Amino acid sequence: MSWYDEVEYIREQARLNNEFFANSLPMIASENVLSPLCREMLLTDFHGRYAEGTPGQRYYEGCKFFDNVELKAMELAKKLFNCSYADVRPTAGTTANIGVLKALIKPGETAVVLDLANGAHISFGKWGGAGVRGINLVSYPFNDEEMNIDVDGAVKLIKKVKPKLALNGRSVFLFPSPIKELSEAAHDVGAYLVYDAAHVLGLIGGGQFQDPLHEGADVMTGSTHKTLPGPQGGVVLSNHKGDSDEDKSFLRKLGFGVFPGVTSSYHLHHVAAKAIAFAEHLEFGEAYARQTIKNAQALAQSLYERGFKVFGEKLGFTKSHQILLAIGPGKGKEASKKLEEAGIVTNMNTIPGDTDPLNPSGLRLGTPELTRIGMKEKEMDEIAEFYERVLLKKEKPEKIKEDVKEFRKDFQELHYCFKEGYRGYDYFELV
Length: 431
Description:
By secondary structure, this protein is an alpha/beta fold.
């Protein structure tokens, strides 16, 4: 192939990807779509520039305009999350987590964590960032019925092992964590509590989930591209103000953990898009977060009524954007493939009791992107019917895919963002 053919092949794959998602039901709980103004930032000259350091203290010249952007991003993040410290440099939620681990715990020291089978995120597991840091990990006890950390057992565990960090990192995040109780126990033994809000950052920013930094968490990390519909990236937030020498040292460690700890230059175009996303969420976040949760609850109820095993039944299934289904021993991957064939995009997931993450028994569903394109409770019942047809009635996926495409025709416009003359769903078109 000539260079032109190679380039055209890549462009064609991007076009096909855009077309696929425009005609499907995107339900990956960790995904969302950018507003037109966020996308604009990704196409600016920022994308090719370096800005190691902090505003006003750079290792490179030519950063005066970006300094203004980073300062504005920090200001907006602090306003959105009602906190006193914000670092917008991490290039991903996992990068933010590893930066905090580098800052606050040494290799060989102990941290208490959630087990992967109970919904933990891999960055706080032995295969992820915590393992890379060489941390001794001890798992919290878990309440399968409530799909949450066993509060009494966790408090006892913290008092017993006296960890350096109490970590709250979750990939399946149906209900708020017991942060007040865990943080009190952690602080009693001289530990910090770190809350990974990757999945629920936008729900927290919209005031619809919990408020970790005001419930006792010392640090909150997050991803800026899940329930907070911004660019892929991360953030580190805290309410420590630097009022004492100990507090100043704590914040210096956090900053040093991010740079030079885990970043060099840090994707300046993404920082600019984060700033836009924070501004949009200050305006639209409350309504967006509320509808996202309503949709998840409505979908969970509809799935349950159609015969699916939905976790968290006694507590209303979910208080977030997520739903967890039990499909059958080792059947999660097969189910997710069948759904994709029918135009429904989700992911296999471990459920309590699973031991093999590559052959799990569940599915994790999310409503952030469905909400973003204007769907509400009524549409969730129709979507539950698609799941029933694919997984319970076992109809041919090809027929269901056509029905999904027809259903999707009425939902081709972004909501909960600044549109600035934007029309239709053309952000799916290749620029």
